[in-house]
Amino acid sequence: ARLLIGEDRISGNPKLNNVAKGWRESRGEIVAMVDSNVLLPADYLSQIMVQFRPDTGLVSSPPAGIRGEGLFGALECAFLNGMQARWQLAADQLGLGFARGQEPGLAARGAGTRGRPAALGHDRGRGCRLDQGGARARVAGAP
């Protein structure tokens, strides 16, 4: 493993800036990106890999909120645990592919995102890059 330090400011989006260096330095065909505050089940990668098909460019998992601290943490949990996951799963079943991976997920390098970390930082940007590469975004079945 290599420790990557320093800031790569490629945009005004701090999350994108944090992902850019790791994306650029990764060597695998499939890259996992997970926020540091996400609790994952032990078999998470197996669960999400089930969604990969030849035309898959990105798999995301709808988030669920737990242990929200304070008013804003409680509001975030209420939002996440309300209808968001249902909407993402329904959209995926209809082929709308609107869920582009704000959540923890996996991205395939050859699916229109190669060398373009900007494709991973914004829902619309990810969608455009995936669509240009002929790839689809998929949603894992459970948060």
UniProtKB/TrEMBL annotation:
Example GO molecular function: glycosyltransferase activity
GO cellular component: membrane
InterPro entries attached to this UniProt entry: Ceramide_glucosylTrfase (IPR025993)
Subcellular location per the Swiss-Prot or TrEMBL entry: Membrane
Biased composition (Low complexity): 107-120
Transmembrane stretches, start-end: none
Pfam families assigned: Glyco_transf_21
Membrane topology listed for this record: Multi-pass membrane protein
Domain of life: Bacteria
Keyword Transport: no
Keyword field: Glycosyltransferase, Membrane, Transferase, Transmembrane, Transmembrane helix
Protein name per Swiss-Prot or TrEMBL: CAZy families GT21 protein
Source organism per UniProt: uncultured Rhodobacter sp
